[in-house]
Amino acid sequence: MLVRQNRVPFNRARATVVSTATLLGIALAGCSGSFADNNPAAQAAAASAAPAIQTASSRNVAAALPDFAGLVDHYGPAVVNVAVVGKSQPVNNDMPGMSPNDPLNDFLRRFGQPMPRGNQPPPRGEGSGFIVSADGYILTNAHVVADAEEVTVKTTDRREYTAKVVGVDEATDVAVLKIDAKNLPTVKIGDPSKLRPGEWVIAIGSPFGFENSVTAGIVSATSRPMPGSNYAPFIQTDVAVNPGNSGGPLFNLQGEVVGINSQIFSRSGGYMGLSFAIPIDVASNVQTQLVSTGKVTRSRIGVSIQDVNAQLAESFGLDRPKGALVGMVEDDGPGAKAGIKAGDVILKVDGTEIDQSSQLPGLIASKKPGSTVNLEVWRDGGVKRLSAKPVEIAEKGVKVANRDGVEADETAKLGLVVRPLQKQEKQQVETDGDLVVEDSDGPAAAAGVQRGDIILGVNGKPVKSVEDLKSAARKSKGKVVALLIERDSAQIFVPVRTG
User: Fold this and answer.
1) Which of 57, 128, 223, 246 is catalytic?
2) pTM for this model (two decimals)
3) End-to-end Cα, the chain, rounded Å
4) The most confident of 63-72, 266-275, 490-499, by mean pLDDT
5) 130 has which bridge partners?
């Protein structure tokens, strides 16, 4: 690859030189008009030489551009179309946005002609994927198969298979499918760490349903952080990617898959020159875990980090901005036990250099909980080597109530997602509370409960755990639960109507 990449600018430069020589020849001929006008032989020679020079120039330009046809012929059959049928949703046509049990609906029925209720047609969508094993395992995006009732995989030879969703990992937007087949064509997995900006890559997928479409471009950047994603340092390209390309492979010139096309940046909803792919090593790790255990386990070391800018690099004595600056270390966490301190700059994880702080969460998350991770940190003008044993990341929150409110007990009517506060968090906000709201909907949201509120009690009784909250809500009499919450250092009661 390196040889091929080095050859491209050389050939382009040579083509430019030839073209410039042609223009100079024409200009010189114009300057010496008397010779050309009075010499028919010279005129004939010039006329015959120009096409030859242009042809040579065209050949040089063509030689500088890669030919993707062989790659597509060889690996294209391993790329599949993924067609999805979602869940049918009930619809109430009496009054859009109104509950069927709303008393106003009864009033409207008496004085108007109600529309029949029924189900909306099931939503349908399409995406792409690629076969990673001859026995039928396929990688695609999680958002392609989210809430799917039926998934159909179509191959390039027009065969169709009903696929099983083996597992979905929303954190990385990776999903694994399985079809019942053998001796299938497969892709070759590459190493995304070797990608360089300016390198040619191609995408194969089904944009807008046009199956097996091929687009080409270059790598614009690597390790690009994206909002809402902590575990996938994206590959940015200018390859044309549109709706339907999601889940398809990103190939390098060696025919190796280096990423899964996942996102675009757009103000119009269509391609605008910025597309992003999940590195294939991240996806392969997710695949291995989903196939073997059915879930993805990630690790943490209990530190908060930020980028190192030029001013911070100078103040810490670094030669340039790099690494992840530690802002806070969780008490009794793996980082604290390893000796990490606030103000340390983490430079390497198991030998991998950290250029931007966004690389660190993904690297740590990929480590096995309890394993030994070797760190290099910058402290007091020198490098220190530490060893940490990361722990598994717990679920973000415990849902006290499901969002559709179909459970029978009182906890199902609150509509809260809460989690215990960590010791460090309690110290930071100076609270005696133990539960923080991560999300609210339904009655809780309608009552004004917000993300970040700290729950202190229910109906005048203190709560210290999720079970306390469930129990207090369950024992509550009447249709209103009084939540005592703390917000912005102030305590207020919020009545939540559950009936």
Assistant:
1) 246
2) 0.63
3) 66
4) 63-72
5) 79, 139
